[in-house]
Write a structure and sequence with these properties.
By secondary structure, the protein is an alpha+beta fold. The chain folds into 2 domains: 103 residues, SH3 type barrels, CATH 2.30.30; 300 residues, Fumarylacetoacetate hydrolase, domain 2 (Alpha-Beta Complex), CATH 3.90.850.10. Helices cover 18% and strands 27% of the residues. Strand 1 and strand 2 form a beta hairpin. It is globular, with a radius of gyration of 22 Å.
Length: 429
């Protein structure tokens, strides 16, 4: 994609690269730790990070913009103020008159240790939805061939309450979990290391503005409560999950680790990449009134390309590049982000700043567009064959999973999310 001549340029040259995830039009928020273990909020620009407290100390941000930029991360930065900071950062990074004062507060991304954007321990709650009808149908067909999609799916956004304490930042090693499993032909369950470890390609969204206990969030107000989006890998131990999930759903098969990308992309940056909500097939029920608005249907989707890449230990040892194993798009979700927020709060549940929600596995209609190995390999019956001859039914120790996401549209720059990656370490039995 060629650089557009009318695009506003940054004096940070790497931000003008048409292939960068972080042009001037993006400026996602993050949190990093310096060599003294001090935490700093920041934005990404090209291959650099801009230290926001440093800019505030320099007098480059006003007092209102500086509120909440302390070491606790973004949990105390309201969305409207974050928008102000983002616009001010764009001004500082595009006007060469500021260069001498701003340049000392730029640090190469490769030299910083990123943290979860809402601070260590700052993600209060985590809810994972099941918003891809293609994923739900694929999985249902594996376990219930005659009845793949349960009757409530088309009426209500399905979700479960996940474990916030085990959310980790991209690059963190993920240890293979142990748990209780039962083979189909076994008389009783056994305890041991999972043999069916899987990834799940998802998009997360952080709550920036909460609601009081007992209050609801109307659909037309839901987006005002969303701070921004990130990538999520909701690691899943399928054998543990299969034994434990009835009758209450996911538990230890998922709570051992969830990896998120370090950057939170604001809705303002994603505005040019909005699309209508995925059309419902003829005959599907119209959602109940509290989950329906013409406005949300007209622009509640996001055209975000999503990919999964895999690098085995053998591939890395041989110097071979990762191979892409999935490519899908967020626009195919059955439920919009706003519908998920509204439904979550419809019973009066109080959402809080820093809460993370995720879409559930994003899958399309082709084998190459599914977001998990469970679907791609038909529960292990059709192993994935890699270019070097290795096969995968599920993940093995040493495998590295890399997720990527970005938006592109004619006349607009590429907007990316960075990477969400993790390597599988052996279990401690």
């Amino acid at each position: 994609m060629a650089l557009m001549p009318d695009r506003k340029r940054s004096w940070v040259e790497s931000a003008n690269d048409p292939e960068t995830d972080f042009p001037l039009e993006n400026l996602p928020f993050g949190l990093y730790e310096d060599d003294r273990q001090r935490r700093h909020t920041c934005v990404a620009i090209g291959d650099q990070v801009l230290d926001l407290p440093g800019c505030a100390h320099e007098g480059l941000l006003n007092a209102s913009q500086s509120i909440g930029l302390g070491p606790r991360g973004l949990g105390h930065v309201e969305a409207w103020r974050a928008g102000e900071i983002r616009r001010r950062a764009a001004e500082l990074l595009s006007d060469a008159a500021y260069r001498d004062r701003v340049d000392p507060h730029l640090i190469p991304q490769k030299d910083v240790r990123m943290l979860p954007s809402f601070g260590v321990g700052g993600i209060g709650d985590y809810t994972d939805f099941y918003a891809s009808i293609h994923h739900a149908t694929n999985v249902g067909r594996l376990f219930r061939p005659d009845n793949p999609l349960l009757p409530n799916y088309k009426w209500v956004p399905i979700g479960y309450h996940g474990r916030a304490s085990s959310i980790v930042i991209s690059g963190t090693e993920v240890r293979r979990p142990c748990g209780q499993m039962k083979a189909p032909d076994a008389a009783e369950p056994a305890f041991g290391a999972s043999r069916s470890l899987d990834y799940e390609l998802e998009v997360g969204f952080f709550i920036g503005q909460g609601n009081d206990l007992g209050e609801t969030i109307p659909l037309e107000q839901a987006e005002k409560h969303i701070f921004g989006l990130c990538l999520v890998n909701d690691w899943s131990a399928r054998d543990i999950q299969a034994w434990e999930y009835q009758p209450l759903g996911p538990f230890l098969g998922k709570s051992f680790a969830t990896t998120i990308s370090p950057w939170v992309v604001m809705l303002d940056a994603l505005e040019p990449y909005r699309v209508p909500a995925a059309p419902r097939p003829e005959g599907d029920p119209k959602p109940l009134p509290y989950l329906w608005s013409d406005h949300d249907q007209a622009r509640g989707g996001f055209d975000i390309q999503l990919e999964v890449w895999l690098a085995t230990a053998q591939m890395r040892a041989a110097g071979q590049a990762p191979v892409r194993v999935s490519r899908g798009n967020l626009r195919e979700l059955y439920w919009t982000l706003s519908q998920m927020v509204t439904h979550h709060a419809s019973n009066g549940c109080n959402l809080r700043p820093g809460d993370l929600m995720a879409t559930g596995t994003v899958s399309g209609t082709t084998p190459e567009s599914v977001g998990s190995l469970l679907e791609r390999t038909k529960r292990g019956a059709e192993p994935l064959v890699l270019p070097n001859g290795e096969q995968r039914k599920f993940l093995e120790d040493g495998d590295e999973v890399i997720m990527k996401g970005w938006c592109e549209r004619e006349g607009f720059p590429r907007i990316g999310f960075g990477e969400c990656r993790g390597v599988i370490a052996p279990a401690r039995v």
